[in-house]
Amino acid sequence: MTTVRLEKLTKRFGPVAAVASIDLEIASGEFVVLVGPSGSGKTTTLRMIAGLESVTSGGIFIGDADVADVHAKDRDVAMVFQSYALYPHMTVAENMSFALKLRKVPKVEIDRRVGNVAATLGLADELPRKPKTLSGGQQQRVALGRAIVRDPAVFLFDEPLSNLDAKLRVAMRGELIKLHHRLDTTMIYVTHDQIEAMTMGDRIVVMHEGGIRQAGTPLDVYDDPDDTFVAGFIGSPTMNLIDGVAEASGGGPAFGADGLRLALPADHAAARGGAVTVGVRPEFLGLEERPGALPFDGRVETVEHLGADTVLGVATAGPAVTAKIARNDAVRYGAGVRLWADPAKVLAFDTASGRRIRTGRPGTEPRP
Ligand SMILES: Nc1ncnc2c1ncn2[C@@H]1O[C@H](COP(=O)(O)OP(=O)(O)O)[C@@H](O)[C@H]1O
Ligand SMILES: [Mg+2]
Known about the structure:
CATH superfamily of the largest domain: P-loop containing nucleotide triphosphate hydrolases
Number of strands: 20
Strand content: 25-35%
Bound molecules: adenosine-5'-diphosphate, magnesium ion
Strand order of the largest sheet: 6-7-8-3-9-10
Structural class: alpha+beta
Largest sheet: 6 strands, mixed
Number of domains: 2
Radius of gyration: 25 Å
């Protein structure tokens, strides 16, 4: 069982800080997903852990060992890439055995391990075949199998499912989760796909511009984003983020964005006043009126029937919003609607910094 710890880990390519002083502790047996848009430093982080990329400053600890001076092949990690990187002239069996042969593992032991892993991955019949005769999904399994036979202390995955079609990707996602439950090995998984991150990670680490913006369980990050970047990146359809101004008027605090006006409870985080961005997830905008709910009036501009859910694009007197409601066959394009949001589900962010505002100022007095 092996922990991984990153301390102020930094990588510069010339003037670019690809990874900017990140701190992260990964527990033994944890499945951690690094997620972020392209260029956020995910691959560079993983390659430094693997020893494939030099470190500019900071430390990497695998178990208790500082691996700064440990060669990649001695780090006891196995990495699976987006490109399968199989040896084309070798059979599936030879591809899977290669690392063990280099380590002079006895042939009977190699055959036993490769046989077991191939059976688990549904590759038993493919062992004599060459990679180019396999489908993309089978090739990805071979790449995975090649990592598993090594029985590493830590698995590193860099977007391993990105080249698969959508259906196979979902199936392989499930298999990787099961594999993790079975092996109980520490896994660090990189993806730009927030749905993959949400569904696979024990914990997700949201990266942006070389830094960690937030780390937590998928649902904690979803429910409680620290800033507008995380709020907008995690979740689909994306959270409605509405820039406006909060002011105290005669009737108490209110939020305004163009013609959209929301009367706020006095203790709402947005009630502190000033340039505020409010955030509300599409599923928290509904057609049913509830006591204390905030009304968003508008006109239906788009209707998407997803089956179980219906997604509405609604033009308000301010910015347009997206609502995700239970299947509704009756809503029509062009209809006037009033959407309701529980104020407790309406988050507030400081527009200038993007940071979450977590507490309101109870009893905000109207300004003169
Ligand atoms: N070998 C390299 N030389 C110069 N810049 C690089 C190199 N590798 C990555 N970068 C830059 O570092 C940043 C992070 O890249 P990367 O770690 O590949 O991001 P991600 O995997 O999140 O897409 C990007 O701006 C990228 O252009
Ligand atoms: Mg990458």
